[in-house]
Write a structure and sequence with these properties.
Layout (H helix, E strand, L loop, with lengths): L6 H7 L6 H9 L5 E7 L4 E2 L1 E4 L6 E7 L5 E7 L11 E6 L6 E5 L1 E5 L5 E6 L4 E6 L6 E5 L2 E5 L5 E8 L2 E8 L5 E3 L8 E4 L4 E2 L5 E8 L5 E7 L7 E7 L8 E2 L6 E4 L7 E4 L8 E2 L2 E2 L3 E8 L6 E7 L3
Parallel strand pairs: 2-25
Antiparallel strand pairs: 1-3, 1-27, 4-5, 5-6, 6-7, 8-9, 9-10, 10-11, 12-13, 13-14, 14-15, 16-18, 17-18, 18-19, 19-20, 21-22, 22-23, 23-24, 26-27
Amino acid sequence: MSAFRYLPSLLCASCLLLSPSLATQAEEKSDVKRVRFFSVSPAGGTAKLFLVPGEYHTAGSPVFSPDGTKLAFDGRKSQLGEKFADGKILVCNSDGSNLKAVAPGVMPSWSPRGNRIAFSHLSPSGAALMHADGTGLEMIESGGWGAQWSPDGRKIASTFYQSGKANIRINDLIEGTITDLFPEGESPYNSLYWNMAWSPDSNWLCFKGRKAEDGTYDVATINATGKAAGFKVHYHNKTAPYADMAWHPQGDTIVFAQGAKPRQFLQFNPAEDKAPAPIDIKVNGDIIGDVCFTPDGQSLLFNVSGTED
């Protein structure tokens, strides 16, 4: 996409474009263990600082708009005592400039045209839609969580609870239909987590789930028409992996973070029966695990906790 002809250079220098006031604040708060976003090649290597998210010392769930011109994420002023319930949807240009809080909420997901955002509404809890400037709020699934907009634009996936089990619900915005991916009572999970990832063709979802029978964890893919059409576990562990999934635009790679610390990212091809392999990344700080690809697939963006750049 045209916007990404220049993105690699922006990834190397975007923090230099932040306003002096933000840079000064970062220096003044150097004793606070705050969050920053870094970028790196999907093959690994030395990560580069991408964005210091202003006065929001806790930030996560990054996602680029499909045309690559905007970045959305959630954040809160944890250094001032703000909690999860105070979370905001934040939007900035892809070079890190013009950072704005557009609405209360967490876990943004862009529409294909980049003019709307799906997200998790905090109070009341539910899957919601809004315009990219924060106006036009529409609740689409009361009690739903982790809303993710499909790349084809027609579906919203979110998690919900039914008969004591966790399930994934697909709201078709065109047909007005609802599809639950596990038949009622047949989900093996008592928890399904936020920041699922759609495949580029909108036919599959990758998610993290906690199994009801023994409390272990899966990273799995499921067909968007339901379990009967396809369901596969790619990773299983007693230790919970991080919840955020990132699916490469070409469709052949999924990235997520392991649970054990120091945390590192793992990658796998969903079409193969191979265990996820580690990505060797060098970064000054502790990897948290929120991650996304740039729309051209040339970089990973992820959050890091630390006291220095």
